[in-house]
Protein backbone atom coordinates (compact mmCIF):
# COMPACT_ATOMS: atom_id res chain seq x y z
CA UNK A 1 0.00 0.00 0.00
CA UNK A 2 1.18 3.52 -0.80
CA UNK A 3 0.79 5.34 2.55
CA UNK A 4 1.61 8.70 1.01
CA UNK A 5 -1.91 8.67 -0.43
CA UNK A 6 -3.51 8.44 3.03
CA UNK A 7 -2.19 11.77 4.30
CA UNK A 8 -2.60 14.78 1.98
CA UNK A 9 0.68 16.51 1.11
CA UNK A 10 3.05 13.69 2.19
CA UNK A 11 4.14 12.86 -1.35
CA UNK A 12 4.90 16.53 -2.10
CA UNK A 13 6.67 17.03 1.25
CA UNK A 14 8.85 13.96 0.69
CA UNK A 15 9.99 15.31 -2.68
CA UNK A 16 11.18 18.67 -1.24
CA UNK A 17 14.26 17.37 0.66
CA UNK A 18 15.29 15.23 -2.29
CA UNK A 19 14.88 18.20 -4.60
CA UNK A 20 16.96 20.43 -2.28
CA UNK A 21 19.74 17.86 -2.03
CA UNK A 22 19.81 17.36 -5.80
CA UNK A 23 19.90 21.13 -6.31
CA UNK A 24 22.76 21.52 -3.84
CA UNK A 25 24.88 18.90 -5.61
CA UNK A 26 24.03 20.28 -9.03
CA UNK A 27 25.08 23.78 -7.96
CA UNK A 28 28.32 22.56 -6.39
CA UNK A 29 29.11 19.85 -8.91
CA UNK A 30 30.89 22.31 -11.15
CA UNK A 31 33.43 23.07 -8.43
CA UNK A 32 34.25 19.42 -7.89
CA UNK A 33 33.63 19.60 -4.14
CA UNK A 34 30.89 19.76 -1.57
CA UNK A 35 31.51 23.46 -1.01
CA UNK A 36 33.93 26.30 -1.76
CA UNK A 37 37.42 26.25 -0.28
CA UNK A 38 37.68 27.32 3.34
CA UNK A 39 39.52 30.45 4.43
CA UNK A 40 42.02 28.12 6.15
CA UNK A 41 42.86 26.37 2.87
CA UNK A 42 43.04 29.78 1.18
CA UNK A 43 45.60 30.97 3.75
CA UNK A 44 47.70 27.82 3.25
CA UNK A 45 47.71 28.40 -0.50
CA UNK A 46 48.69 32.06 -0.09
CA UNK A 47 51.47 31.06 2.31
CA UNK A 48 52.86 28.72 -0.38
CA UNK A 49 53.64 31.73 -2.62
CA UNK A 50 55.29 33.89 0.05
CA UNK A 51 58.63 35.30 -1.02
CA UNK A 52 58.03 34.87 -4.75
CA UNK A 53 58.39 38.13 -6.64
CA UNK A 54 56.49 37.43 -9.87
CA UNK A 55 53.00 38.23 -11.13
CA UNK A 56 50.31 35.94 -9.69
CA UNK A 57 47.52 34.37 -11.73
CA UNK A 58 44.58 32.67 -10.00
CA UNK A 59 42.68 30.05 -11.99
CA UNK A 60 39.14 29.05 -11.08
CA UNK A 61 38.48 31.85 -8.61
CA UNK A 62 34.97 30.58 -7.80
CA UNK A 63 33.31 32.75 -5.15
CA UNK A 64 36.62 34.18 -3.97
CA UNK A 65 37.68 32.31 -0.87
CA UNK A 66 41.22 31.95 -2.24
CA UNK A 67 41.00 35.30 -4.05
CA UNK A 68 40.56 37.07 -0.71
CA UNK A 69 43.83 35.61 0.62
CA UNK A 70 45.93 36.56 -2.42
CA UNK A 71 47.58 39.95 -3.04
CA UNK A 72 45.36 42.56 -4.68
CA UNK A 73 47.70 42.63 -7.71
CA UNK A 74 46.66 39.04 -8.55
CA UNK A 75 44.81 38.49 -11.82
CA UNK A 76 41.87 36.15 -11.20
CA UNK A 77 40.22 34.00 -13.88
CA UNK A 78 36.64 32.74 -13.58
CA UNK A 79 34.55 31.66 -16.57
CA UNK A 80 31.27 30.72 -14.86
CA UNK A 81 28.97 33.75 -15.25
CA UNK A 82 27.36 33.84 -11.79
CA UNK A 83 30.70 33.45 -10.01
CA UNK A 84 32.38 36.01 -12.29
CA UNK A 85 29.66 38.58 -11.54
CA UNK A 86 29.95 37.90 -7.82
CA UNK A 87 33.75 38.32 -7.91
CA UNK A 88 33.53 41.61 -9.83
CA UNK A 89 31.12 42.95 -7.22
CA UNK A 90 33.03 41.62 -4.20
CA UNK A 91 36.53 42.56 -5.38
CA UNK A 92 36.03 45.80 -7.35
CA UNK A 93 39.74 46.68 -7.35
CA UNK A 94 40.87 43.22 -8.50
CA UNK A 95 41.57 42.41 -12.14
CA UNK A 96 39.04 39.59 -12.73
CA UNK A 97 38.77 38.16 -16.21
CA UNK A 98 35.91 36.10 -17.66
CA UNK A 99 37.77 33.62 -19.83
CA UNK A 100 38.97 30.05 -20.08
CA UNK A 101 42.07 29.34 -17.98
CA UNK A 102 43.56 27.18 -20.73
CA UNK A 103 43.37 29.97 -23.31
CA UNK A 104 44.77 32.49 -20.83
CA UNK A 105 47.74 30.24 -19.92
CA UNK A 106 48.55 29.83 -23.62
CA UNK A 107 48.77 33.63 -23.98
CA UNK A 108 51.12 34.32 -21.05
CA UNK A 109 54.27 36.22 -22.03
CA UNK A 110 56.18 36.59 -18.74
CA UNK A 111 57.18 34.31 -15.84
CA UNK A 112 54.13 33.89 -13.63
CA UNK A 113 53.07 32.12 -10.44
CA UNK A 114 49.80 30.22 -10.86
CA UNK A 115 47.41 29.47 -8.00
CA UNK A 116 44.80 27.01 -9.23
CA UNK A 117 41.52 25.97 -7.65
CA UNK A 118 40.37 24.14 -10.75
CA UNK A 119 39.26 20.60 -9.84
CA UNK A 120 41.47 17.80 -11.12
CA UNK A 121 39.22 14.84 -10.27
CA UNK A 122 36.05 14.22 -12.27
CA UNK A 123 36.82 17.23 -14.46
CA UNK A 124 36.53 16.31 -18.15
CA UNK A 125 38.73 19.30 -19.09
CA UNK A 126 41.54 18.63 -16.63
CA UNK A 127 43.76 16.87 -19.20
CA UNK A 128 43.55 20.00 -21.36
CA UNK A 129 44.49 22.20 -18.38
CA UNK A 130 47.38 19.88 -17.51
CA UNK A 131 48.68 20.06 -21.09
CA UNK A 132 48.38 23.85 -21.06
CA UNK A 133 50.34 24.09 -17.79
CA UNK A 134 53.01 21.81 -19.28
CA UNK A 135 53.31 24.03 -22.38
CA UNK A 136 53.49 27.18 -20.24
CA UNK A 137 56.16 25.63 -18.01
CA UNK A 138 58.26 24.65 -21.06
CA UNK A 139 57.84 28.18 -22.43
CA UNK A 140 59.03 29.63 -19.11
CA UNK A 141 55.78 31.47 -18.42
CA UNK A 142 54.62 29.34 -15.47
CA UNK A 143 57.45 29.04 -12.96
CA UNK A 144 55.48 27.98 -9.88
CA UNK A 145 52.10 26.31 -9.51
CA UNK A 146 50.11 26.03 -6.29
CA UNK A 147 47.03 23.82 -6.20
CA UNK A 148 45.19 21.44 -3.90
CA UNK A 149 43.75 17.97 -4.04
CA UNK A 150 41.46 15.94 -1.82
CA UNK A 151 43.59 12.83 -2.28
CA UNK A 152 47.37 12.40 -1.99
CA UNK A 153 47.54 12.08 -5.79
CA UNK A 154 49.98 14.29 -7.69
CA UNK A 155 47.90 15.84 -10.52
CA UNK A 156 50.81 17.62 -12.24
CA UNK A 157 53.44 14.89 -11.84
CA UNK A 158 56.22 14.94 -14.41
CA UNK A 159 55.83 18.57 -15.50
CA UNK A 160 57.95 20.48 -12.98
CA UNK A 161 61.33 19.36 -11.61
CA UNK A 162 60.06 19.83 -8.04
CA UNK A 163 56.66 18.81 -6.72
CA UNK A 164 55.85 18.61 -3.04
CA UNK A 165 52.98 18.62 -0.62
CA UNK A 166 53.47 21.82 1.40
CA UNK A 167 50.42 21.50 3.61
CA UNK A 168 47.39 19.52 4.62
CA UNK A 169 44.31 21.45 5.69
CA UNK A 170 41.86 19.64 7.94
CA UNK A 171 39.65 22.73 8.27
CA UNK A 172 38.25 22.34 4.78
CA UNK A 173 35.40 20.19 3.45
CA UNK A 174 36.80 17.82 2.41
CA UNK A 175 40.31 18.12 3.93
CA UNK A 176 42.87 19.08 1.29
CA UNK A 177 46.52 18.58 0.38
CA UNK A 178 48.32 21.73 -0.86
CA UNK A 179 50.83 21.11 -3.65
CA UNK A 180 53.68 23.32 -4.81
CA UNK A 181 55.39 22.81 -8.16
CA UNK A 182 58.52 24.71 -9.10
CA UNK A 183 61.78 24.74 -11.02
Present the secondary structure layout:
Layout: H1 10-29, H2 39-47, E1 56-59, E2 75-77, H3 81-90, E3 95-97, H4 101-106, E4 112-116, H5 126-139, E5 142-149, E6 162-169, E7 176-182
Parallel strand pairs: 1-2, 1-4, 2-3, 4-5
Antiparallel strand pairs: 5-7, 6-7
Q: What features would you describe in this structure?
A:
The chain has 183 residues and is an alpha/beta fold. The protein has two domains: 1-30, no CATH class; 32-182, Rossmann fold (3-Layer(aba) Sandwich), CATH 3.40.50.150. Helices cover 32% and strands 21% of the residues. It is built from five helices and seven strands; from the N terminus they run ααββαβαβαβββ. The chain has helices at residues 10-29, 39-47, 81-90, 101-106, 126-139; strands spanning 56-59, 75-77, 95-97, 112-116, 142-149, 162-169, 176-182.
CATH architecture of the largest domain: 3-Layer(aba) Sandwich
Strand content: 15-25%
CATH topology description of the largest domain:
Rossmann fold
Helix content: 25-40%
Find the count of extended strands (DSSP E, 2+ residues): 7
CATH-defined superfamily of the largest domain: Vaccinia Virus protein VP39
Give the N-terminus to C-terminus distance in angstroms. Answer: 67 Å
| Unreliable runs | 6-29
CATH class of the largest domain: Alpha Beta
Largest sheet: 7 strands, mixed
Amino acid sequence: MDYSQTVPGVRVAAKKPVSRIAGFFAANGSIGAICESSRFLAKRMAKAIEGIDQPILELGAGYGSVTAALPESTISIEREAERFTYLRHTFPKRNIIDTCAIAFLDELTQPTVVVSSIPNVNNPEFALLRDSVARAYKAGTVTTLITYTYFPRNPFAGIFPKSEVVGFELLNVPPAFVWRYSC
